[in-house]
Amino acid sequence: MNNLAQVIVLNGVSSAGKSSLARALQTITWPPFLHVQLDVFMQMLPPSCKTQSDGAKQTPESLCLASARGADIDAIVGQTRRAMRHAVAAMAAQALRLIVDDVLDDMAASEYMRLLAPYRTCVVGVLASLEILECRERSRADRVIGLARSQLEFVHRNIRYDMTIDTGSMTPMQGALQIKTQLGL
Fold this sequence. Notes:
Blueprint: E1 2-11, H1 18-27, E2 33-37, H2 38-43, H3 60-69, H4 73-93, E3 97-102, H5 106-115, E4 119-127, H6 130-139, H7 147-151, E5 163-166, H8 172-183
Parallel strand pairs: 1-3, 1-4, 2-3, 4-5
């Protein structure tokens, strides 16, 4: 086992506070953790491949283009998400410390656990009440209203967590301090 690599996987629905928690954790830990975000991988896709399910807006032009090319958009998005998991494993193989900010179902979580088995990995469930999630969605211009609600159906199902953080009852820094303490960072 590579004792240098440490991976913290933050799993939660859109607007749960994963990114804020990751940034807070970065400010209080050394050696540094890199913040690997699903949002950054999704931004790599052209507009014609972004779907309502990943929070991007579709236009008639992008739908027409995708249709005209015969693109299977769900397959391309799925490939991109799988590639992110493999990229995380490649980064861990380089002894980088990582905070992974993702929205996982049980199959994706299983793949992470298989890929990250050689490394010290902690899976953190990032939780907040639906009321808080929907309030956060409404206050942010970059969120699709209802996305968090739809993701709640699968995100935490059948996933074993090493710990959970309720971002509805604590600040990002309080959550980061709890992770730091519990993991001995």
